[in-house]
Design goal:
about 300 residues; TIM Barrel; 8 strands; about 15% strand; globular; binds zinc ion
Length: about 300
């Protein structure tokens, strides 16, 4: 059975580690992540973005994750990632598949974000068992809008506002902006995270904190991808050292998407180049699954969720 991430995240908050939340788009990625969670005895949040739902359909994705929950004796939650469209969030809540949703009103003015998030919280609380709601305050940029240091305050999460936001909305967890960015092409220099800000937010906000855009962009895997034809020059992520410090300071959920994509890409490219005469999809996707599984296990160890199932 799929469970609510509530107990998972509260335990992580109390014990000082983070639960990984992996984005999936298909069966193979899901299986690789679940295998990793079993091997590490780790709780795991599976999440689907609006893009994943557009690609594969909410019903298909919901059904395979539900089966994963039925077959495996570890805590598995299903979460809607970055719901910006109110109707999609409502559909996810009503679907019976999701145990958690994110409403992302981070691009709205503060008061609008409060009102819309609150609406979603009210809707989610009516379900039995209640659906959890992750909200976002402060913008987490993508590669197209890199933040200049002088404009930090406009984007980064304001600690006082965060306290007020959680109080007013009743959201169950909060995604914050402290210097991470979505995607692989996000940093030209080594990134720095605003740890002072994180500490201040943690003091004021009691619900679990979520970090997006913290992919590592593992250079070993980028090297494999590039040596078999990819052109991922200049990609750079958040180092393991920075990420594990953020967890130490109070991050309780870390979203992971880009790192799995790069592993998938490297595995498929390597296989196709090495075995040009093989056209069996099961063989083509096998090595990609192995790389994703390894990547997921590494994350669980780094975040401290191994052994916490
Ligand atoms: Zn995100």
């Amino acid at each position: 059975m799929l469970i609510s991430p509530k107990s998972m995240l509260e335990k992580a908050n109390k014990e000082g580690y983070a639960v990984p939340a992996f984005n999936i788009n298909n069966l193979e990625i899901l299986q690789a992540v679940i295998e990793a969670a079993l091997e590490e005895n780790s709780p795991v949040i599976i999440q689907t973005s609006e893009g994943a739902i557009e690609y594969a359909g909410m019903e298909y994705l919901g059904a395979i994750v539900r089966v994963a929950g039925e077959l495996n004796d570890i805590p598995i939650a299903l979460h809607l990632d970055h719901g910006r469209d109110y109707n999609l969030v409502k559909k996810a809540i009503d679907s019976g598949f999701y145990t958690s949703v994110m409403f992302d009103g981070s691009s709205l003015p503060f008061e609008d974000n409060v009102l819309k998030t609150k609406d979603v919280v009210v809707m989610a609380r009516k379900k039995r068992p209640a659906i959890q709601v992750e909200a976002e305050l402060g913008a987490i940029p993508g590669k197209e809008d890199l933040i200049h240091v002088s404009r930090r305050d406009a984007f980064y999460t304001n600690p006082e506002q965060a306290e007020e936001f959680v109080e007013k909305t009743g959201c169950d967890s909060l995604a914050i902006s402290i210097g991470t960015a979505h995607g692989a092409f996000k940093f030209t220099d080594d990134p720095s995270l605003d740890f002072e800000r994180l500490k201040e937010i943690k003091k004021r906000v009691k619900v679990p904190l979520v970090l997006h855009g913290a992919s590592e962009v593992n250079q070993e895997i980028v090297k494999i991808a590039n040596s078999f034809g990819a052109k991922l020059g200049g990609v750079k992520g958040v180092s393991n050292r920075l990420l594990s410090h953020a967890v130490k300071l109070g991050i309780n959920k870390v979203n992971i998407d880009t790192d799995l994509r790069i592993a998938f890409d490297a595995g498929v490219r390597k296989f196709l180049k090495t075995y040009p005469k093989v056209f069996d999809p099961r063989k083509i996707l096998g090595p990609a699954k192995d790389l994703i599984r390894q990547e997921a296990r590494d994350k669980m160890r780094l975040l401290g969720s191994s052994g916490k199932a």
